Amino acid sequence: MESPTGADVQRPLLSMKNINMTFGGVRALRDVSFEVRPGEVHCLAGENGSGKSTLIKVITGVYRPQAGAAIEYDGQRYTHMSPVTAQASGIQVIWQDLALFPEMSVAENIAFHTVLGHRPRRVDHKAMRDTAERVLARLGVTLDVDLPLREYAVAQRQIVAIARALVGEAKVVFMDEPTASLTQSETDHLLEIVRNLSASGVAVVFVSHRLAEVLEISHRITVLRDGGLVGVYPAEGMTQSRISELMTGKIFDHAVRAQSHDGAAPVIAVEGLTRRGEFRNISFSVRRGETLGITGLLGAGRTELALTLFGMRRPDRGTIRLDGKPVRFSSNRDAIAAGIAYLSEDRLSLGLIQPQSIADNLVISSLRKILSHGFISERKKHGLAARWISDLGIKIGLQQDAISTLSGGNQQRIAIAKWLATDPKLLILDAPTVGVDVGARAGIFDIVARLAQSGLSIILISDEVPEVYFNADRVLHMAQGEIAGEYDPRATSLRDMEAAVYA
């Protein structure tokens, strides 16, 4: 595919060959080759655990590859990079967590590297502001650089992270899941910034599980699977299903799963639920064994509604009925006791406790089940954990391993298991596939379908319309805190639903 900068006829800016990495006997990378051309937008695709992050850490000097590696960058040859060499050479990485400082100003976040050094020096705040404003102007963005970063939403923070990378005259910028928490309009703006960077000669390596935007923005796609290189492909003519097949070695059947549940009794019924400034006049019901999808742009009030159903927030008016009886929750403990479970969209901060063990994370919401004479029974704990690990097909090493040792998809399965262990009537899944790959997504939705078939009622929240279209029985569209429409996937097209939601 011909790029606007002529990247396809230029020699690579970065070329890596014969990259091997082994951790504890596990081959994380196997003879991988990778290259990026000047001004190119290059997608690095693969499932969680395929080696993407390991490869990036080799490029940036965090890891030293095994003997035999050949790295050439900007005309110079290396056996390995160091973090100092990589940064000084213009290789920058924007990780998914952004690694910014919320209490510092925008200017300080963007330009703090300019005041680092071996000897103390006086901080020139004016120079930092000037640097920040200059780089933001290059991106076509206007922000108050004196405001603390915490005052800005995640979309603006993403831009601040990009601006910080450009201060060092970046030549290659790696972006790890940059749109995971952005609305469609924010995503469109970010992709336009990526195009502008490409046009100015900056190469961008884009890592994303959202395959539609991968195809929209990339010139070429490098696919990794199980630590090995599958191939390098032009984005032109590629499809989402083909990328999924290359990443996983499997063919996925995207079929509508919707079924009628009109004969089943409502498990939850909501009438006129309102919380000022967040949502208003929300009415719906979910029947036994039914999966209700809720979609809409970020900021539509979806998560706020879920938190209210889960007792984390109190409505100003309206009613909630469980099994026909009105309920009022003072806390999430009341909701859990009543049979409601909530999987947060923020798995890393709210869904799981990363340093704790797999078993402890799984049983934390069901402690009463594992007590013996007032103390936690290790036998009961490991028995409960083993049951759900087996039932959901979760791949682990040992139960006592930290949850952080698992892939994103397996972490998400543990988070689901944590709530299933409470024996809920209603399971609320808020963006359950954020940060997980296409194969793990398919596995999660297979679990959702199986749970619904067993009689569990499910509310599935996602800003990705295809997720609710293919996996819910009915879909509600929320916009600006209200229900803007209701859809039956069997009676409408995906294109029409997407047009309504993304309009």
From TrEMBL:
Protein name: Ribose ABC transporter ATP-binding protein
SUPFAM superfamilies, A to Z: P-loop containing nucleoside triphosphate hydrolases (SSF52540)
Similarity remark: Belongs to the ABC transporter superfamily.
Keywords: ATP-binding, Cell membrane, Hydrolase, Membrane, Nucleotide-binding, Plasmid, Repeat, Sugar transport, Translocase, Transport
Pfam family, one: ABC_tran
Classification via CDD domains: ABC_Carb_Monos_I, ABC_Carb_Monos_II
PROSITE patterns associated with the record: ABC_TRANSPORTER_1, ABC_TRANSPORTER_2
Domain ABC transporter residue range list: 14-251, 256-503
